[in-house]
TrEMBL record:
Gene Ontology terms describing biological process: trehalose biosynthetic process
Protein name per Swiss-Prot or TrEMBL: Trehalose 6-phosphate phosphatase
Cofactor: a divalent metal cation
Function per UniProt: Removes the phosphate from trehalose 6-phosphate to produce free trehalose.
Species this protein is from: Pelagomonas calceolata
Pfam families: Trehalose_PPase (PF02358)
InterPro entries noted in UniProt: HAD-like_sf, HAD-SF_hydro_IIB, HAD_sf, OTSB-like, Trehalose_PPase
Pathway: Glycan biosynthesis; trehalose biosynthesis
Enzyme Commission code: 3.1.3.12
Length: 294
């Protein structure tokens, strides 16, 4: 059997990444993955206030006319679908545990954990009801415990409540804790994350297009995200030559210092301009030798 070595993905300081204007998208077929919070909408105080603007919706819809587009979010699939409200996209909610897409595609990972997550959420609501500014968000296949609005002095109480609930049976064996931007997340214990979901979706796009295994040689995956949970996807897609775009404002204190992304953008406005540039490229393919997005 032939073997080949896949180089390990590189981590690097995000401040040293080139910005997305320099991406050579070549003539390959694009497959675009988009995180939601912090990527398509700015980070805001109240989770439910992070609604998509009409211009961003139009840019996503425009690109989706030319390339498969997937939204990969920590939010519940139904909620992110409702917020984005563009048809014919792939939607992966709860960090990829709950997926749907065109043609009736449906994949749910660890459905057995859903009632356990519901029970954990109820416990957390009790533990946190006296902590001003804390909130518990039901993402169906995950639970988000928000502490952005919690006073500095009370933040240890939030972390303590999450750890106390996670120490109880059956949670301690079935759930795992992760951290994001001013949020703790409980997810099912499983070898699944945004990276696995992105690989699954890439293969589903291949199947939908009737591609054989050499189909992967002709595609250019692009993943745009801003949070630590997106690092799994940057890493998983790297062997496919993916362009990983980190949305990282210069003053962003919530960014990890090192990333598996290959490029960066400053903010949500830059993301929209980037999506428009990709769509424009598909509408008027660049002449040979001029394949960048600008
Ligand atoms: O994977 P994502 O689409 O980036 O979702 C990650 C979490 O995003 C949301 O929380 C974050 O954004 C909120 C709105 O800007 C902000 O208030 C919060 O502090 C952030 O953590 C969402 O509410 C979570 O459910 C997602 O898991």
């Amino acid at each position: 059997m032939a073997t080949f070595a896949v180089p390990p993905p590189q981590t690097r300081d995000w401040r040293e990444l080139p910005d997305a204007k320099t991406i050579d998208t070549g003539t390959k077929r694009l497959v675009v993955f988009l995180d939601y919070d912090g990527t398509l909408t700015p980070i805001v105080e109240a989770s439910d206030a992070a609604v998509l603007t009409a211009p961003m919706r139009a840019s996503i819809a425009r690109l989706a006319r030319h390339a498969p587009v997937a939204v990969v979010s920590g939010r519940a699939r139904e909620k992110v679908r409702e917020f984005v409200a563009v048809e014919n996209l792939y939607y992966a909610g709860s960090h990829g545990f709950d997926i749907d897409g065109p043609g009736g595609l449906r994949k749910q990972v660890k459905t057995s954990a859903v009632p356990i997550l519901r029970a954990a959420r109820s416990q957390l609501e009790v533990w946190l009801r006296d902590v001003a500014g804390a909130s518990v968000e039901d993402n169906v296949f995950s639970v988000s415990i928000h502490w952005r609005g919690v006073a500095e002095a009370d933040r240890p109480r939030v972390a303590g409540a999450v750890d106390a609930v996670l120490a109880l049976a059956p949670f301690r064996t079935t759930l795992r804790k992760f951290s994001g931007k001013c949020v703790f997340e409980l997810r099912p214990s499983a070898a699944w994350n945004k990276g696995e979901a992105a690989l699954y979706l890439l293969d589903m796009v291949r199947k939908a297009e009737g591609g054989a295994h050499d189909w992967f040689d002709g595609v250019q995956p692009i993943y745009v995200g801003d949070d630590v949970t997106d690092e799994d996807a940057f890493k998983a897609l790297a062997p496919f030559g993916a362009v990983g775009v980190l949305v990282a404002p210069a003053d962003e204190s919530e960014r990890p210092a090192r990333t598996h992304a290959t490029h960066r953008l400053r903010d949500v406005d830059d993301v929209r301009a980037f999506l428009d540039a990709l769509a424009a490229r598909a509408e008027a393919p660049p002449a040979t030798g001029d394949a960048s997005t600008t």
